[in-house]
Design a protein that fits this description.
By secondary structure, the chain is α+β, with helices and mostly antiparallel strands. The chain has 2 domains: about 5-175, Jelly Rolls; about 180-290, Arc Repressor Mutant, subunit A, CATH 1.10.10.60. It is built from 12 helices and 11 strands. The strands form 3 sheets. The chain has a 5-stranded antiparallel β-sheet, covered by helices on one side. Strands 2-7-4-5 form a 4-stranded antiparallel β-sheet, with no helix packed on it. Strands 9-11 form a two-stranded antiparallel ribbon. It is globular. It starts with a helix and ends with a helix.
Length: about 290
Amino acid sequence: MNESLQTLKVSLLNIGYAKLDRQWDYDNVVSPFSRLYLIKSGTAKVYHHRQVFDLKKDHLYLIPSYTYSRYKCDSRMEQYYVHFLEETGVGMSVYSRYDFKYERKASPLEQLLFERLLAVNPQRALVKSDPKIYHDNKVIPDFTGINNRTPAKYIVETQGLLKILFAGFIQEHRHQNAYAGNTGKKIIDMVKYINEHLSDELTVQKLAAQCHLDPDYFSRIFKKETGIRPLEYLHARRIERAQLLLATTAYSLQEIADMVGIPNISYFNRLFTRLSQRTPAAYRKASWNV
């Protein structure tokens, strides 16, 4: 039941302390990473999941990855912020497997954890770029490179601190009987395979052969177990990966298209625009200017 939590991995992208004003006013924000805020003073509003959250002092707020949101500060606010990636070994987002709350009072211990997380990651602040030169700069630091330069004990400590802060938002399991039996295990294995081979040339026929199943039968049971057809799932994961690369790297659009297994740049642009409701270039500009 809790296999996804047992394999949960969280990776820190950014952490910092920000003093915000009326310029913190953004609409149509869809980030490929999760956001966690600890409010220290002032007030502001965030909208997501059809709810308006009035940000309050000494409260924690979670905004899941790939969630449409709006931000607005009418005067001033000070906050700690954390951007992080989450992934599970079963290849499904933890947000699709569990219910979450998105606002809660921060305990004194959690406030200390935020301070400690910043202390062991002092070079992770978000660098706001000029949209006119966003192709030449990285808004989000190269977290893999930073991790390679970070002492091992701080990498482990960071993982632990992030998981403790994240854990307080998790509610009940959403699908008690999902992924049961041998067929369900095959689909779990195939979901993991897709996520690990996004850059490969994948088709429904190849995926079905990997499971030793007839393509039509494979497609039916994949949808039964996941709620989505395998090709739709493959497209969604590839575009999610492209969104992450657009927001966190300076790779060209062609390089990103190759990396997510859609080397035809015209088709990549069409598919990305259809699933993201904006072009890859517009998505990158919006991500880097938040």
